[in-house]
Amino acid sequence: MAAPGQNLAVVVHRAGDLRLENRPIPEPGPNEVLLRMHSVGICGSDVHYWQHGRIGDFVVKDPMVLGHEGSGTVVKVGSGVTRLKPGDRVAIEPGVPRETDEFCKTGRYNLSPTIFFCATPPDDGNLCRYYKHSASYCYKLPDNVTFEEGALIEPLSVGIHACKRAGVTLGSKVFVCGSGPIGLVNVIVAKMMGAATVVVTDFTIQVKNETPQEVASKVESLLGCMPEITVECTGVQACIQAGIYATRSGGTLVLVGLGPEMVTVPIVNAAVREVDIRGIFRYCNTWPVAIFLLASKRINVKPLVTHRFPLEKALEAFEATKRGEGVKVMLKCDPTDHNP
User: Are the C-beta atoms of residues 223 and 199 closer than 8 Å to each other?
Assistant: First the structure.
């Protein structure tokens, strides 16, 4: 274990103020484990908190450790922990319910209003050397699943949850708006769930100055029909509009990307054609499924990682992410092991 104080962390203090700081190594509670972090991905929300100091109603009021896409090794367990032991490699589910409320009882704990969530004010994230977390929300990784794959379970879970909410099934025709990390995991999951064809903007469809209706026509032309399912991953008003116009009557549009609080959409078009519009909030009950998919090699997320930085160069990593370089930037938190 590191000497006292050797817990380097990436901390946002306010908009535009991102620092590398040493923090105390935490002591796990009875039902918690202490982890030596290995791999943590940078998410767009991390960059947004750094640049703007807030996302919607979540405002950075005190210094906050960033990071919620993480994996690591158990180094210490609390007195009540029986399922994990030191040396176990685990992936971290960042959302932990604080109470067993009505949402937890119905299996939708992600909607609990009091949930703890890594790197969402005021809760610290896991972009640091040592981090403690609820043992129940740390999942053992099989030997053939890498730490980086474990960290990628977080964005992958967004795709799993979105495609489940959308009802993707054998033969589905799917339109994915946006080809960032979240758009790409939705493509991967939709295909794994049996989608016959998936088109995605910026890859199979280049969108420049077309109107939303023109984008919808392009989608129909490429698919040979209108898609039953659209997964919107940008949050951009014009893309949401295109998603409604593109979706087949009786189909489903799932809103994954978060943009402005208020947007103008052709709601009457959706209503008279019975296009269901659904939202998602993070995910729930996805880690076991994701680990099975990765261990069985049903899906491959490894190519999503295009850049790697040691934790000491986190500020450079954040700058690269802000510039939109590559797909997924991964920070390596263990100075003795920079392997995937």
Answer: yes
Compute the distance between CA of residue 182 and CA of residue 233 in angstroms, rounded to an integer. Answer: 7
Cα distances (Å, whole numbers) of residue 95 to 86, 235, 284: 22, 22, 9
The answer to whether 35 and 92 have CB atoms below 8 angstroms apart is: yes
* CA–CA distance, 267 with 315 (Å, rounded to integer): 42
Q: Residue 228 and residue 81: Cα distance in Å, rounded?
A: 45
**Global confidence as pTM:** 0.96
Burial (0-12, 13-18, 19+ Cβ within 10 Å), 272 = exposed
CA distances from 304 to 91, 93, 148, 225, 308 (A): 17, 19, 10, 30, 11
Q: Are strands 8-14 and 64-65 parallel, antiparallel or unpaired?
A: antiparallel
> What Rg do the C-alpha atoms of the chain give, in angstroms?
20
The residue whose two tokens read 């998919």 is 293
323 secondary structure, DSSP code: T
Contact 133, 67 (CB under 8 A): no
E strands, 228-300, are: 229-232, 252-255, 276-279
pLDDT digits (tens, 9 = 90+) for 91-138: 999 999 999 999 999 999 999 999 999 999 999 999 999 999 999 999
Q: Which residue has the tokens 């704990």?
A: 109
Q: Which residues contact 206 (CB under 8 A, 6 or more apart)?
A: none
Amino acid of residue 50 = W
Q: What is the pLDDT of residues 145-183, one digit of tens each?
A: 999 999 999 999 999 999 999 999 999 999 999 999 999
Closest CA to 233 of 273, 181, 197: 181
Instruction: Give the start-end residues of each E strand in 156-273.
Output: 173-177, 197-200, 229-232, 252-255
Closest CA to 325 of 300, 340, 308, 301: 308
